[in-house]
Amino acid sequence: MSWKHRIVDTTNLILSPFNAAIAKKDSLPSWGHLFRMANQLNFIPVTVFDIGVAYGTPWLYEAFPDAFYYLIDPLRESLPHMKAISKSLRTEILNVALGDRSGEIEIEVHENIGGSTIFIQEGLADTARTTSYPVPVRRLDELVKAFESPALCKIDVQGAELGVLRGMEGILPLLDLVIVECQNIPTLQGTPEAVQVIAFMDAHNFGIYDILSLSRRPLDGATAQMDIAFAGRNSVFFKDKRWS
After folding, report:
1. Could you say which DSSP state residue 236 is in?
2. pLDDT tens-digit series, residues 186-213
């Protein structure tokens, strides 16, 4: 145990009668912490699905530079970013929206393309709407039927996460780790709450392995979003059940 951790532990012992504590830095939610734990378990994905690319997910690419990436985003505005990412990684670009059935849907594009959505925002949007247009929708398990394992999937699609998951049921058993942005307080009309995503993943034999980030809404500081890492219950992530 480092001297920093000893100081924190001693301070927390003093604070415990007051129901207060100092969080250790390595216990705070972060993508880096997940990747370090994955490394300790010798988990190095061969295939990565980046669903909802927008400008890109650099911390994912930096952690697993040798993986093959499926870059998936329906926006015309994201296509140049996906092509730029492809210059340094092995990729396949899918410029489509994902859902539980094939078809077409209207998407509202925001100035910050990461906030673009097919849903109506409660109250004011975080960024200005610039345009809207129809985009094709496909099931992922129809677009990609087979891939190399181990495999990781990240889903950040502004409220459409449950539809995406339902459209990839055919390949879910082939995935080891699935990172999903969940809405604790749905600020987009008609979108699922985190508990619904958790129930879906539980029904497909995935458990919560880690919380990677928490986002509080400006309105009152309440936790509105979180990135949750789900791991297959038979995967290496849940193999060791010991506390210490």
Report:
1. G
2. 888 888 999 999 999 999 999 999 999 9
- Predicted TM-score (pTM) of this structure: 0.86
Q: Which residue in 173, 180, 185 sits closest to 147, CA to CA?
A: 173
In 3D, which of 73, 75, 23, 45 has the Cα closest to residue 229?
45
CA distance 195 to 50: 23
pLDDT digits (tens, 9 = 90+) for 134-184: 999 999 999 999 999 999 999 999 889 999 999 999 999 999 999 999 999
Q: Give residue limits of the domains in the chain.
A: 28-238
Both tokens of residue 6? 């000893």
Distances (CA, A) of 135 to 207, 210, 222: 32, 33, 33
* DSSP reduced 3-state for 23: coil
Q: Which CATH architecture has domain 28-238?
A: 3-Layer(aba) Sandwich (3.40)
